[in-house]
TrEMBL record:
Residues 1-492 form the Alanyl-transfer RNA synthetases family profile domain. The keyword Cell inner membrane does not apply. The lineage of its organism: Eukaryota, Metazoa, Chordata, Craniata, Vertebrata. Residues 541-568 form a coiled coil. It is found in: Mitochondrion. Its EC number is 6.1.1.7. This is Alanine--tRNA ligase. GO terms for molecular function: alanine-tRNA ligase activity; aminoacyl-tRNA deacylase activity; ATP binding; tRNA binding. Pfam families: tRNA-synt_2c, tRNA_SAD. InterPro entries: Ala-tRNA-lgiase_IIc, Ala-tRNA-ligase_IIc_anticod-bd, Ala-tRNA-synth_IIc_core, Ala-tRNA-synth_IIc_N, Ala-tRNA_ligase, Thr/Ala-tRNA-synth_IIc_edit, Transl_B-barrel_sf, tRNA_SAD. Keywords: Aminoacyl-tRNA synthetase, ATP-binding, Coiled coil, Ligase, Mitochondrion, Nucleotide-binding, Protein biosynthesis, RNA-binding, tRNA-binding. One of its GO terms (cellular component) is mitochondrion. GO terms for biological process: alanyl-tRNA aminoacylation. Belongs to the class-II aminoacyl-tRNA synthetase family. Alax-L subfamily. It comes from Catharus fuscescens.
Amino acid sequence: CRAPRYQGLVGDADIGRVNMAYRVVADHVRTLCVCITDGIYPGFTGAELVLRRILRRAVRFCSEVLQAPPGLLASLVPTVVEVLGDAYPELTRNANQIKDIINDNEAAFLSSLERGRRIIERTVQQMEPSTNFPAEVAWSLYGSLGFPLDLIDLMLEEKGISLDSAAFNELALEDAKRKAGGLQAGQPGNTNTHLDVHSLAWLQRSNVPATDDSPKYAYRLGQHGQYEFNPCQATVLMLYRDQSLRKEVGAGQRCGVILDRTNFYAEQGGQDSDQGYMIRLGQQDVLFPVESVRLCGGYVIHEVTAVEALRAGDQVQLFVDEAQRLACMTNHTATHLLNFALRRVLGDSTEQRGSHVTAERLRFDFDTKGHVTVEQLQQVEQVVQDLIQKNEVVHMAEVPLTLARRVQGLRAVDEGYPDPVRIVSLGVPVENVLTCDSEAAMQTSVELCCGTHLLQTGSVEDLAIISERQLVKGISRVIAVTGGQAKEAREVGQCLATEVDSVSLRMKQRITSIPEMQNLSKEVGQLTKVVANAAMPQWQRKELQTILKALQRTANTAVKKLELQQAEKAAQILLAKYSNQPIIIDTVPADSLSILMKVVNQLCDKSPGTSVLLLSPQASGEVLCACQVSKNFVPTFSAADWAVAVCTQMEGKAGGSPIVAKGSGNSRGMQEALTTALEFAQSKL
């Protein structure tokens, strides 16, 4: 390191955070060694994403604070092995693999860092003085190169420039809405990616070749089990903006870019399009973010924000957002597993009616004769789990459509397909599925599909169905998540199940306090709302909802029973005090207006000729009022008028019927209210 030696300094004494950097690197390299040995590699989702961020943070402290050359992090692995090897013998066996993985990821990140620095330098040089750094460039650094936002801020701060935070947050919000389904980039409404018929006809008349998108399938599993996506070199054939084809588009404009070839997946077959960026060959410091991709008449249109002018004939290199692509691949393969599992559990008559695959989740619509039961949901998940654990190879091949349609038990939506067509088969090679009289497709998932898929089912890791409902009679929709999200959903389910068990145990205890039972009833109500909205396994949600419904009934019944007992006790005391008198006006303790009304009802039931008005002062300073008039005195004597007269005296409000009424007021006027109650009653009798 080209930094001062470690001195154990902290806080303000640690100038330049040098000592902190030593501690960060030491801590992070230990974490990396143990996690990689346990089979968790830097990746794009769940624990893998956390580890990737830890590695990148360590690399930043090595290069920026400790000023160390590349390779420092991996060079510390032998020391970690020496310190922890006795406790974790696996470290000794895997030391070389750990170093390779750290070095590979460090090199990739340092390359991104260097490219990011060049982009910032170039952008700053072209900026007008005293202006904010463009949000579009910062967003492309953040989204495309994986640049941490705090690093962007730090680099800009060093140059005395600030980021246009409001515009950046707006881009982040748009992206979040798009991912949530609120904004569908590339939809027909998007004029930059939807070719109009005249433009499409012109391209075809001019013999502009259709885009070769076969490179989208060019990916492989690396040495350490990670997916590797190669960049693709292409030529800009034409640009499209405001429903017209163009040879050039100016800086800052959003447009559609038509290329001769691409490795980007265009939205089709229910799978979301890729995102990523492109750079011009020989110009590494300018990123053109690709926000969506659409297929129109054989031409793949990339929706791009032109940071600089783009022209037909430009040579570009394309980089897909690997995290987003891998997440879509995972969810698409999981969709095929789910389709197979539903048919296995619900019967072969279960047909797919539609699906949508995004990086966040998958949606699947299918025929059903009724509601899917808790047991069936559990069975479906179990079938999927079994296929994941078998780590079946995902076989893919293009075959003539006529040959493909002869496959027995082929699972596919009834729609038009290209010829030749792509077959995706789990665990069984496509050539075996195509042989005469083969029933292999009846025993596994075989579908016609143009989507991108995992190469082995084990990479799905887990699947949890988090929603199931009937869209219309006969068609159900399930939503599922995979990998780390599925694990999180199960953890949420377990936490909520523990809370429900805790409430159930407390409900079984003998509770004699009304407030305590009311609080328990409220807790059940709040828990019911949480369970209804939480991302958790649907089968477990249904189970907990059944339990909570029963608990709510039990709690409500218990509250009513306790209130009735308290009311009976108070009524007995008052009856003994005012035996057979035509009017009872008094104050009594009562925890709620409901209990006070029950006391009044009890008195009138046991003494039918008596009219009753009771006040109950509360700790808050409020006074509750409840009254009931004997039917013998109606309509001359109205309970509603009686309550209004009394509560008005206490600066409160009241209402009700001629027989029964209730209200409330302030304790300062309670004595005058009691006097008013008696005078009002006497005037009516």
